[in-house]
Design goal:
With 266 residues, this protein is of the alpha/beta class. The protein has 9 helices and 10 strands. The protein has helices at 27-37, 54-59, 61-64, 91-95, 98-105, 133-143, 158-166, 176-192, 213-219, and strands at 13-17, 43-50, 70-75, 111-114, 120-123, 126-129, 148-151, 170-171, 196-199, 244-245.
C-alpha cells in the first residue's frame, strides 16, 4: 500500500520492478500496473531488475521516462546463451548496451551490474561456471562507467535442486575457503577498476543494500527524500530499505535459467 504518512523521510514510495518477475517478458502488464497504482507524482524512484537492457531502453522507456528517477540492477552472470541461461543474451551483447543505459538514467551511480549468482554446475563430465567470467564482466562494465557491482553465491533451494536432478545436473558446492578465494579475486578486479563489489546476502560479508534509500535520496534530481527504514520480509542478511515490489512469483519466464528460485519450474 502507498505510504501516505508525512515524515522527514519523505512520503513518496520506492517501487521495485521486480525481484520476483523478469520484467522484459511482462513489460506491458507491469507498465499498466505501475501507472495505475503508483503514478509518477507518488513515486520517488522506480528500481528495475532485469537481464535485458531492452526492458528499460525499449519496452518500458516511455513509461519510465515519466518518473523522476530510475535505478537499474542489470544482471550479467556471464552465462547468457549457455545451457545455464539458454534464452538470455550473451554477455558481450548485454554489456555493449551499458553506455545507452547510463545515458538514459542520467548518472552511472543509478546502474548496478550484478554478476550474480556465482555458480558451478556439473552435468556428467561437463562443468558450467561463471567464477572466472564474473571478473571479466566487472572489468568490462567498469570500463564503460559502472561504479558498483553486486554478487552472491547461489542458494540451493529445494525446488532448484529438484529441477537440476530431473535434468541430470548437480550443483558443485564450494568450501568456505574456495568461496573466500573467489570473492577476493572478484573484489580485487573491482578495486583495480576503481569500483566497489558488494555482497548480496553473503555470509561473512558486511550487510549491503541493493535498494538503498539513502543513496536514492542523494541521487534524486530534486533532492527529495525517501524512506530509509529497513525493508520487512527480506532475508536476515539483506540491508535493503523499504520498497514496494509489484512483481509476481511463479510466473512463466522463458529465460530458462537453471538456478532460478522465483519460479517453481523453468
Amino acid at each position: 500500500m502507498f505510504y501516505r504518512k508525512r515524515t522527514t523521510q519523505g512520503s513518496k514510495v520506492v517501487v521495485s520492478l521486480s525481484r520476483r518477475t523478469e520484467p522484459y517478458f511482462y513489460a506491458e502488464r507491469l507498465a499498466a500496473l505501475l501507472l495505475a497504482r503508483y503514478p509518477p507524482e507518488r513515486v520517488h524512484t522506480v528500481v528495475v531488475w532485469t537481464k535485458f537492457p531492452e526492458t528499460v531502453l525499449l519496452k518500458l522507456r516511455t513509461v519510465l521516462s515519466m518518473y523522476s528517477q530510475v535505478y537499474v540492477h542489470l544482471t550479467v552472470t556471464g552465462l547468457g546463451g549457455t545451457l545455464v541461461e539458454p534464452r538470455v543474451a550473451r554477455p558481450k551483447a548485454v554489456l555493449a548496451q551499458i553506455p545507452s543505459l547510463i545515458e538514459f538514467l542520467g548518472d552511472p551511480r543509478r546502474l548496478r551490474v550484478r554478476p550474480d549468482p556465482l555458480v558451478v554446475f556439473r552435468r556428467g563430465k561437463e562443468f558450467f561456471s561463471n567464477l572466472e567470467t564474473a571478473a571479466q564482466v566487472i572489468r568490462t562494465a567498469a570500463n564503460m562507467g559502472v561504479v558498483t557491482f553486486s554478487a552472491s553465491f547461489m542458494e540451493l533451494y529445494p525446488k532448484v535442486q529438484r529441477r537440476l536432478l530431473r535434468r541430470g545436473w548437480e550443483a558443485v558446492p564450494l568450501t568456505p575457503e574456495e568461496r573466500e578465494r573467489v570473492w577476493e579475486k572478484l573484489s580485487a578486479a573491482a578495486a583495480a577498476a576503481g569500483t566497489v563489489l558488494y555482497g548480496c546476502c553473503v555470509p561473512g560479508m558486511p550487510v549491503s543494500r541493493c535498494i538503498d534509500g539513502e543513496l536514492l535520496s542523494a541521487l534524486h534530481p530534486a533532492g527529495e527524500r525517501c524512506r530509509v527504514d529497513k525493508a520487512k520480509g527480506q532475508r536476515a542478511l539483506c540491508g535493503c530499505t523499504h520498497a514496494i515490489d509489484i512483481g509476481w512469483y511463479n510466473m512463466t519466464c522463458p529465460s530458462g535459467c537453471l538456478y532460478c528460485y522465483a519460479n517453481s519450474s523453468v
